[in-house]
Design a protein that fits this description.
Layout (H helix, E strand, L loop, with lengths): L1 H7 L16 E5 L3 H4 L1 H12 L3 E5 L5 H4 L3 E3 L6 H14 L5 H7 L13 H4 L6 E2 L4 E2 L56 H8 L5 H8 L3 H12 L8 E5 L1 H4 L4 H14 L10 E3 L6 H6 L6 E2 L3 E2 L10 H8 L9 H13 L25 H7 L5 E5 L3 H4 L3 H8 L4 E6 L4 H8 L1 H5 L10 E6 L8 E4 L4 E5 L12 H16 L8 H5 L6 E2 L4 E2 L1 H9 L1 E2 L18 E2 L32 E2 L27 E4 L4 E4 L98 E6 L15 H6 L4 E4 L1 H7 L6 E5 L4 E8 L6 E3 L2 E3 L1 E5 L33 E7 L2 H4 L7 H4 L3
Parallel strand pairs: 1-2, 1-6, 2-3, 6-7, 10-11, 11-12, 22-28, 23-25
Antiparallel strand pairs: 4-5, 8-9, 13-14, 14-19, 15-16, 17-18, 20-21, 22-29, 24-25, 24-29, 26-27
Helix pairs in contact: 1-12, 5-9, 5-10, 5-12, 16-18
């Protein structure tokens, strides 16, 4: 989550769902929280009952809208324009929480003279390299900040040298912001505060109306309601989901929210924060202990195939910072290597650093489908996913799997991915005859969630352990069983091969207690290793600060230290909540803080901003921080401790009044001087497919975003292409889960939502002669599908840039197997890559929609772009 990580320091929700009940206003965008996170939504309802204003900004009127005080329909893909308008309203009307901004953000930082904003370069920042299609971020540094930092940590690299974006500084981090020059008065023309005011000056209510289709009056009503919930005695929260992230500028959408919340003083305080609503039980856990290609557990960057990552010293030199918590980077990494390789990891062999694989290119999820399609991959494991229907340009993904030598699918049923070779549309049409597919497919039955033990890490960074309720049936096994025994067999095979490439596999620590007749690995033993221990006596570690850089400690994920602090105490399995924030129920990283950056809930002198909004504060008598949450700060650091970020080292150098301790300067970043690939400030760009020119700048789309255009992944690139006059967006329903691989198999859910449908407004239905209950063909440059038509006033036409705009909504839960079936909506989408995390754009595309005639009912849906022209 680089949007949150670069703004605050950590890529996770800043607050707990229960704390939403303390909010005075709640803005929900990029999510239908009531439908997709209904349990958490109860706290929104509680806040509303206490008088909070609930604002829902969404192209569709949903159950969330029905429970909101204000519903704001907008054009899909214009979130930054809307949020930019809110930021401008705050700055132009003096609504910012000035004391908070001055003390706890980088508003005072002075930028270099050679920095140029998008106003001067018509949509580009300084440093753009047209040939490389990448930014050099040097000019984004603070005045006086060195661009290279030497042996005390923090050396930089340019954007063109790094492919990933999930890790600590994989966006191209350079310089030492702690050594930059500042102006505490916020008057210097090049200080961040003044740059921010100029940058967002063009996001006027009139421009918001022109771009988003939101009327000026509705926008101002929304801005007033949210901005007024700010100050010492009030706070407001923001909730979002993949409706923000799945855009070609998704990270910068989240950055916009972060800027707004920092200006209003809503981070680290009760009733404030930004809640990233996760779509699965452990999406947060899958980035903490990652299934991502560019990071190691705890957001430690993977070594890339670069000169300064060829040895441990170079890697540490690149990523260790002089100040803040990342000054412990070497302790976190070496402890991880000790957990991986045990006694084989020694100082003499760099603790096994050479055994870690190197990233040599785009090994992201979407990137390797192109490799697969081009015959560059031999095999694939698919566990807990269903790419044949659940991924963008799903037809490409199905055909790509036909190029593999082998495919392993683990699931509770035979999904479309497991059956693509004989049951896909391509197989049935003869485009991919089963007899010509050489892929050998292995289908393994998987255990369900109640049939295995382990830990989820949910939306609010909360680890919750659960016991196995029943044994899985037949040959079904858990993921832990499968991965453990696969690893055991591979290690045994490697032990018979003395080649250097297998040294790391031979050294791997892989000894866990086994349970039951099938040898299930003990999940609590795994969690104990993740927590960490002292190597000499295997004593559990209690706190992150106990990790060492000398090989004397081991930890599988430094951010989880404290979840298993002593023998027989699994805090993730505790179920005795003591307060509203849930202390005593599970364990929230870091250090069981439920609201992170909570030092900001007190004034610089350590006392609460107000009695109503107190959370943690300094107890002068006991000389420690106390309150209703665990302090996300050194517990005994006096608020009067002077800061010395220019010369000091570690967290101590930040002093007693800088809450954002993972940043080198200890403050929240309104302006990101390094760490992002598409600019230090958010900019409205149009989606990769759009029907209008960007009304803000000459640059149409996010410059470093990757379209990955090719014959099997085509685009409607020209704005206003008459073949695709409507906006297309996809979304989820309450009754189905993601692509439906599990829910379509369940009769009660299949009955509730039995058929794929498309939502259109009455005006669009009239314009296109669509009949309610009839069928329609929806077309994009990739494919066409059929869906039942739902004509509803929940879809509202908008006036955008002087013309009427219609939007077409499609849920994406159907496929060609299960109790209920339907066309694959994801066939319509393109594979694209946002520049920081390489996520696809699914929430704002272009399409056409026409009714299905009686003749069309009897023929196959058109799939080729050439045939589409006939339509």
């Amino acid at each position: 989550m680089p949007g949150l990580g670069t703004s605050f320091g950590r890529g996770g929700a800043t607050t707990a769902q229960q704390d939403l009940s303390n909010a005075d206003a709640i803005l929900i965008m990029g999510s239908s929280m009531a439908e997709n996170h209904p349990v958490g939504f109860q706290w929104v309802m509680e806040a509303r009952e206490r008088g909070a204003k609930v604002i829902h900004v969404d192209p569709r009127f949903t159950r969330t809208s029905a429970m909101a005080d204000i519903w704001v329909p907008l054009r899909a893909g214009t979130d930054i324009a809307f949020l930019g308008g809110l930021i401008r309203c705050v700055l132009e009307n003096g609504k910012e929480f000035r004391e908070y901004v001055a003390a706890y953000t980088n508003a005072s930082a002075i930028l270099r003279e050679d920095f140029q904003d998008t106003d001067a370069l018509d949509g580009f920042f300084s440093g753009w390299n047209e040939e490389k299609k990448a930014y050099d971020p040097q000019s984004w540094l603070y005045e006086g900040a060195t661009s290279e930092q030497g042996s005390d940590g923090g050396g930089g690299h340019s954007h063109s040298q790094a492919s990933g974006g999930h890790g600590k500084d994989r966006g191209g981090e350079v310089g030492d912001p702690a050594r930059g020059e500042t102006d505490p008065t916020l008057q210097h023309p090049r200080c961040v505060y003044q740059v921010l005011k100029r940058h967002f000056a063009r996001y006027t209510p009139e421009m918001v109306e022109r771009c988003c289709g939101v009327s000026r009056d509705v926008f101002l009503r929304c801005a007033e309601a949210f901005a007024n919930a700010s100050g010492p005695d009030k706070t407001a929260a923001i909730c979002y989901a993949v409706g923000w992230t799945q855009h070609s500028k998704g990270v910068q959408v989240i950055r916009s929210a972060a800027i707004l919340q920092l200006l209003l003083g809503n981070i680290g305080r009760p009733g404030g924060g930004i809640l990233a609503l996760r779509g699965h039980a452990s999406i947060q856990g899958s980035t903490d202990i990652p299934t991502l290609y560019d990071i190691l557990p705890g957001y430690l960057p993977m070594p890339f195939f670069e000169q300064d990552s060829k040895d441990l010293a170079g890697h540490i030199r690149k990523h260790k910072t002089r100040t803040g918590m990342w000054s412990g980077f070497d302790s976190y990494l070496i402890s991880l290597l000790k957990a991986y390789y045990g006694s084989a990891a020694t100082k003499e062999n760099d603790y096994g650093f050479d055994w870690l694989p190197r990233v040599t290119g785009d090994h992201s999820h979407l990137g390797y489908w192109f490799d697969m399609q081009d015959g560059k991959m031999e095999g694939l494991f698919v566990m807990g996913q269903n790419p044949a229907v659940g991924a963008p340009n799903a037809k490409l993904q199905r055909t790509a799997m036909s190029k593999l030598k082998w495919l392993v699918v683990r699931d509770m049923v035979e999904t479309e991915t497991g059956a693509f070779w004989y049951d896909s549309p391509e197989a049935k049409s003869g485009e991919l005859p089963p007899e010509k597919i050489g892929t050998e497919i292995f289908l393994f039955p998987a255990a369900g969630t109640a049939e295995k033990a382990g830990t989820f890490t949910n939306t609010q960074r909360l680890l919750q352990f659960r016991r196995k309720a029943v044994d899985p049936p037949g040959d079904a096994r858990s993921e832990s069983w499968f991965v453990y025994h696969l690893g055991r067999r591979l290690r045994e095979k490697a032990s018979q091969d003395s080649s250097a490439r297998n040294a790391g596999l031979r050294a791997l620590t892989w000894e866990y207690p086994l349970e039951g007749p099938h040898g299930e690995p003990d999940s609590e033993a795994v969690l104990k290793e993740i927590n960490g221990y002292t190597v000499a006596d295997r004593k559990q570690i209690e706190h992150i600060k106990d990790l060492k850089n000398d090989g004397s400690t081991a930890s599988g994920a430094w951010i989880y230290c404290g979840v298993f602090p002593e023998e027989n105490r699994n805090r993730a399995n505790e179920r005795k909540p003591k307060d509203l924030l849930g202390h005593g129920w599970g364990f929230a990283w870091p250090n069981d803080c439920r609201i992170i950056y909570n030092r900001a809930s007190a004034r610089p002198d350590g006392q609460p901003w107000s009695e109503r909004k107190k959370l943690v504060w300094w107890d002068a008598e006991k000389k420690k921080w106390t309150g209703t949450d665990r302090p996300d700060f050194t517990e005994d650091m006096d608020p009067a401790t002077p800061s010395n970020p220019r010369e000091g080292h570690g967290v101590q150098a930040l002093g007693g009044a800088r809450p954002f301790t993972l940043h080198q300067d200890g403050v929240g970043w309104l302006f990101v001087p390094s760490g992002l690939k598409d600019g230090p400030l958010p900019v409205h760009y149009e989606a990769l497919e759009s029907f209008i020119q960007n009304p803000f700048y000459g640059q149409q789309t996010n410059p470093p975003a990757k379209m990955r255009e090719r014959p099997d992944n085509p685009y409607a690139k020209e704005p206003g292409n008459p073949r695709y006059p409507y906006v297309l967006m996809t979304y989820r329903l309450t009754e189905h889960h993601t692509a439906g691989g599990m829910s379509r198999q369940l009769s009660h859910l299949a009955e509730l939502q039995p058929e794929l449908f498309t939502e259109v407004s009455p005006e669009l239905a009239a314009e296109r002669s669509l009949m309610h209950g009839g069928k329609a063909i929806i077309t994009t440059p990739r494919a066409s599908i059929q869906a039942r038509v739902l004509v509803t006033r929940r879809m509202k036409p908008l006036i955008v840039d002087g013309r009427i705009v219609h939007q077409v909504g499609l849920p994406y839960h159907w496929g060609y197997s299960g109790s209920v079936q339907g066309d694959v909506v994801n066939d319509l989408l393109a594979i694209s890559q946002e520049p920081n995390v390489r996520i696809m754009e699914t929430k704002a595309l272009v399409c056409d929609i026409v009714p299905v005639s009686n003749h069309d009912e009897d023929v196959a849906v058109v799939q080729s772009a050439e045939h589409l022209e006939v339509l």
